[in-house]
Design goal:
Strand order of the largest sheet: 1-2
CATH class of the largest domain: Mainly Alpha
Strand content: under 5%
Structural class: mainly alpha
Order of helices and strands: HHHHHHEEHHHHHHHHHHHHHH
Number of strands: 2
Radius of gyration: 23 Å
Number of domains: 2
CATH superfamily of the largest domain: MFS general substrate transporter like domains
């Protein structure tokens, strides 16, 4: 009987710890929700902004794209800031920026101050894209780290879908007109202002979560770190040994500096280059073309506006389904295998879409795809979204949160995160011209990058599934991994 009671007590305690780890990880992932919401909500307001300020396509593109440049700056700054003031504090700053951006974007005087508010929102996006994965990786138990890290991407895709629903609902209240009157403003202004509500929730939950134990150890707050670990580590864990291991790794060198990312003839440390490579390959698959230009894309090949909205929304639903699949698989089959599966699936899907788009007939408003190519293109693009969401969409942020040594994690993640946003911006601003030149060729280019990502992962990516951060991130471990790769190559 005592053994039964002890086992039941241990099980209940373990469930409590897992619930606690889930709560604080989900709280950190709220930044991902705002990341997805803010980056997608602008699409429903584009024509309203154009009409309100009477601006051309170039200026409008600046208003839309400037948030991505702000995100690059925010991602770069977040790492250094997190190492100075702590992870939750950076989340609180990001929440404040989201709220200010929402209010400013709702009540702009000119298109130029609207651009400033959008850029500030972009800074918040960049900060949230970095601090969420870093924090979750540092507080999640090793055996659940992949699934908990996946909450960031789940929140992003949910934010994208919710923004589309909110825009659709507001548009309905305004009789289908983005400039229609609503609550004393125009509909597009309400769309941008609604962001204040989730921003306040994000700021509130960021006040309720504990500091990362790795940050606390780095600051010499060992007792506080032990308290945090006692709430998240499995029962029976030797907390003293765990703290000693973290302390040894964290203090194996000096305090984190941006120059710590530098090393060797390649300017940056090899592990940093691998993170940058993952960031570039994820974005060069063209995923954001689907979410930023999907309605325009389908209309450009002859599909009516109402159906275009429907297909854009179904893409978001598939994105959510794929993310759920990734959450279920990432700690079972591992990051590396999941990435390779995704690379192959995305390359095939994009290649089929490119083939279908090669049958495009006519130009401008008269362009259309004949059947069965139109149906094949639609299925291929949705297949691409599914493969991306179930693999690279989640894997990138999980890997960036756990693959770097503790002492450079925030800074390296910030650099890789800024590369994500810069590449995103380049794709966003160049795709309209690329599509006008050749929609089919554009998708073939995306397919080529998806295909090349497979050998990159096979050759350079180290599996991180279920391993303690200190084992993954030690300089010796990274060196041995790269040395082993060099021997295989020779």
């Amino acid at each position: 009987m005592p053994n039964t009671v002890s086992t039941a007590s241990s099980t209940a305690h373990g469930a409590h710890r897992l619930r606690h780890a889930f709560f604080i990880s989900a709280a950190a992932a709220m930044g991902g929700f705002l990341f997805g919401y803010d980056s997608a909500v602008i699409n429903g307001a584009v024509e309203g902004i154009r009409g309100k300020f009477d601006i051309g396509s170039a200026t409008l593109g600046t208003v839309v794209g400037i948030a991505l440049l702000g995100a690059a700056a925010g991602a770069m700054a977040a790492g250094r800031l997190a190492d100075r003031i702590g992870r939750p504090r950076v989340m609180q700053i990001a929440a404040l920026f989201f709220a200010i951006s929402g209010i400013g974007s709702m009540l702009p005087f000119t298109v130029w101050d609207l651009s400033v508010w959008r850029a500030l929102g972009g800074v918040a996006i960049g900060m949230a894209s970095v601090i969420g994965p870093a924090y979750i990786a540092e507080v999640a138990p090793a055996e659940y780290r992949g699934r908990l890290g996946s909450l960031q991407q789940a929140a992003i895709v949910l934010g994208i879908a919710i923004s589309q629903l909110v825009n659709f609902a507001i548009l309905g209240l305004a009789s289908g007109d983005q400039r229609g009157p609503l609550l004393g403003l125009e509909a597009w202004q309400i769309m941008l202002g609604v962001e204040v509500l989730p921003a306040l929730v994000y700021g509130f939950v960021a006040l309720r979560i504990p500091e990362s134990p790795r940050y606390l150890v780095a600051r010499g707050r060992i007792a506080d770190a032990k308290l945090v670990l006692s709430d998240i580590e499995p029962a029976g864990t030797d907390l003293g040994a765990e703290l000693s291991r973290i302390d040894t790794q964290m203090h194996s060198d000096h305090k984190p500096r941006l120059r710590d990312l530098l090393g060797g003839r390649a300017v940056l440390l090899p592990i940093v280059w691998i993170g940058i490579g993952l960031a570039v390959f994820q974005q060069m698959s063209g995923i954001n073309v689907v979410f930023y230009y999907s309605a325009t894309l389908w209309q450009s090949v002859g599909i009516d506006a109402s159906s275009s909205f429907l297909y854009s929304f179904t893409s978001s639903i598939i994105n959510i389904v794929g993310t759920i699949i990734a959450i279920l698989l990432i700690d079972r089959i591992g990051r590396k295998r999941l990435s390779v599966i995704g690379s192959v699936g995305m390359a095939i899907s994009l290649g089929v879409a490119a083939w279908a788009f090669s049958y495009l007939v006519g130009q401008g408003d008269d362009a259309f795809l004949p059947n069965p190519q139109a149906t094949i293109a639609l299925l291929a693009v949705h297949s691409f979204v599914l493969f991306f969401a179930a693999t690279w969409g989640v894997v990138l942020w999980v890997l960036l949160g756990e693959m770097f040594p503790n002492r450079i994690r925030a800074a390296a993640l910030g650099l890789a995160g800024s590369v994500v946003w810069i590449t995103n911006w380049l794709i966003t601003v160049t795709f309209p011209s690329m599509a006008e030149w050749s929609l089919s060729a554009s998708y073939f280019i995306f397919a080529a990058f998806a295909a090349l990502s497979a050998p990159f992962v096979i050759l350079f990516l180290r599996e991180t599934k279920g391993k303690p951060l200190e084992d993954l991130g030690s300089a010796r471990s990274v060196h041995l991994h790269l040395h082993h790769h060099d021997q295989n190559q020779s």
